[in-house]
């Protein structure tokens, strides 16, 4: 084996794998929610093809549209698009993790009074009387089976308190 092997063009199988990877990236963009998709810089033709693919309900039509998106992906900087997609999904995951953390705090506050002391130790700027009122209201709502107004208000208060 010599350096001539490095000069060979990619095999047909490798070219197919590359095309399928671009098509998969296009399919990820189609499945992405609209807000995250707006944050990714895409050429106009590709953005239009993605929006059209979202409206297609026919399986075969959608498959052909995804192939077309894969074809368009060959002419754009797919590495940049992948990086933007990964960043958008990462920030979305961070946001989701923060919301889950707030939900855990809320559940712990409703289950145990000692958690309030822990929360105050972590966030001393908290309005303690207002938080106690929300906790009592949420507990009574749950016990009576009423709509969760205080429960939601507690979540909103915690989301303003706990930073990003």
Instruction: Supply the CATH architecture of the largest domain.
Output: Orthogonal Bundle
- Measured distance between first and last alpha carbons: 55 Å
Specify the number of helices: 9
Any idea how many domains?
Answer: 2
Number of beta strands: 0
Q: What is the chain-wise order of helices and strands?
A: HHHHHHHHH
Structural class determined from secondary elements = mainly alpha
Superfamily (CATH H level) name of the largest domain: PSPTO4464-like domains
pLDDT < 50 stretches: none
Reported by name, the CATH topology of the largest domain is Diphtheria Toxin Repressor, domain 2
Helix percent reads over 70%
Largest sheet: none
Describe this structure in words.
The protein is mostly helical and 164 residues long. The protein has two domains: 11-76, PSPTO4464-like domains (Diphtheria Toxin Repressor, domain 2, Orthogonal Bundle); 92-161, PSPTO4464-like domains (Diphtheria Toxin Repressor, domain 2), CATH 1.10.60. 79% of the residues lie in helices and 0% in strands. The protein has nine helices and no strands. The protein has helices at 4-7, 12-31, 34-38, 44-55, 59-73, 78-111, 114-122, 128-144, 149-161. The model has no long low-confidence stretch (mean pLDDT 88).
Layout: helices, strands, pairs:
Blueprint: H1 4-7, H2 12-31, H3 34-38, H4 44-55, H5 59-73, H6 78-111, H7 114-122, H8 128-144, H9 149-161
Helix pairs in contact: 2-4, 2-5, 4-5, 6-7, 6-9, 8-9
